[in-house]
Amino acid sequence: MESPETIRRHLEQTRALVDAELERVLPPAEEYPPSIHKAMRYSVFAGGKRLRPTLCLEAGRLFAGEEKILLRVGSALELIHTYSLIHDDLPALDNDDLRRGKPTSHVVFGEAAAILAGDALLTLAFEAIAGAGNGASGRTLRVIHELAHAIGTIRGMVGGQVVDLETTDSTGDAARLEYIHSAKTGAFMRAALRSGTLLTAASQDDLARITAYGEKIGLAFQIADDLLDVVGTEAELGKTIGKDQQQHKATYPALHGIEASKRMAAQLADEACAALAPYGERAGILQGIARYIVGRRQ
After folding, report:
1. Would the pTM count as exceeding 0.85?
2. Each residue of 45-71: pLDDT tens digit?
3. Residues 241, 291, 289, 11: what is their CA dihedral angle, to the nearest 10 degrees?
4. Could you tell me which CATH class the domain 4-295 is placed in?
């Protein structure tokens, strides 16, 4: 398993590759109408580790996928992720003024432009995937189906967001909280890994192992995020600290306590790594990412 420092360097290197691909995919800021393209680019290039594209790439590399196609699909995943952040920060949802250490899209461009920028990024993502490469149409169609489901209402991002909005620390229980985190965050992270795998000649057993890994790290990531909202700093989290408590949200620390939440996240990382044990050292980066997700502070 790779060390945390190796994982940090790898994430930086992959971010550079993804950012270069995003430059190729996104319209220039001056393209007419410039207002929407400036808003789209502002949020995409506001920062972030490009974790979901990295997961897509590493899953695909594990099974000898074509780098060019993996990178295009990975960049599309970042467009979808950014769309979700823009909309999540809107006053009608989480009402946050800070994201990735910068003012959120609706603060800079207004609510209407922010909504449309999110819509445009989601649409552009599927356009990019559909044109990912010659000879890959069958595989990219499976990826489109995978992602559309992960973003949707049945145990997907939108469904998780709805239940999150309807749940407070007084109405939440363990099962409801796990649904929120698994759907709102975990489903798309799992889909990123499955997408990378679906773009290769991997077997069904391979896909099952990657899926198990994705389910574990998706939940672990959100538990770690909950913990950072309590014990982290604004610089580490890149957004307003303490919002969960202020909004009376159901979270793992609120329901289980800080120490128990840490143990749960660590256990999920252990289980994620175990799922990839059959691949030996080839899975070192993915296993290192599982540990990094739980221990991250910035």
Report:
1. yes
2. 999 999 999 999 999 999 999 999 999
3. 60
4. mainly alpha
